[in-house]
Write a structure and sequence with these properties.
The chain is α/β, with parallel strands linked by helices. It contains 7 helices and 9 strands. The strands form 2 sheets. It has a 5-stranded parallel β-sheet with strand order 2-7-1-8-9, with helices on both faces. A 4-stranded mixed β-sheet has the order 4-3-6-5. Strand 5 and strand 6 form a beta hairpin.
């Protein structure tokens, strides 16, 4: 059985990553499995161990980091989050293509540790359009919107690190481009 791909998928907040991925994962031939992250935060109501996250203590997380068991990790809002290498490798050995929807800093860590990963960055047609999309959510304060736009500007400077850059100016076109990248990578030996 051929080993599955490790797909790193990034893009600024509001670019439509989740929407693109929902459409991509409908294609069963692509054998997409989402990576399950490890976290030190407490489970929220309805979250399931091993499905939503692997919930661990801060000590267990630090031990995993010290033992080189994490592909990437970061601290956010007082808790640690990261990608356990073992889950990713087990799924790839089954022939599944493991997808990490991940921010740029974590993506850099994965790209350094997993040289065979396939990296895809989704861009907005423009920063103005990205701001329009974020504002359209009506969930952010002006301060948060400005912060997200500034972060997006920094993240867009990192696109040269990625194997593939796809503009989400038309949802169906972006979905087809992502699928084409994955299919082409699957066909490589």
């Amino acid at each position: 059985m051929k080993k599955g791909l490790l797909i790193v998928f990034s893009g600024p907040s509001g670019v439509g990553k989740g929407t693109v991925l929902k459409e991509v994962e409908k294609d069963e031939e692509l054998k997409i499995v989402y990576s399950v992250s490890m976290t030190t935060r407490q489970p929220r109501e309805g979250e399931i161990e091993g499905v939503n996250y692997f919930f661990v203590t801060p000590q267990e997380f630090q031990e995993a980091v010290a033992n080189g068991e994490m592909l990437e990790y970061a601290r956010y809002a007082g808790n640690f989050y990261g990608t356990p290498r073992s889950f990713v490798e087990q799924e790839r050995e089954k022939g599944n293509n493991v997808l990490l929807e991940i921010e740029v800093q974590g993506a850099k860590q994965v790209m350094e540790k997993a040289k065979d990963c396939v990296s895809i960055f989704i861009t907005p047609p423009s920063l103005e359009e990205l701001e329009r999309r974020i504002r359209g959510r009506q969930t952010e304060t002006e301060e948060k919107i400005a912060e997200r736009i500034a972060t997006a500007h920094r993240e867009l400077q990192e696109t040269d690190r990625y194997d593939h850059v796809i503009c989400n100016d038309d949802l169906q076109k972006a979905v087809e481009e992502v699928k084409a990248v994955i299919r082409a990578e699957m066909e490589k030996e």
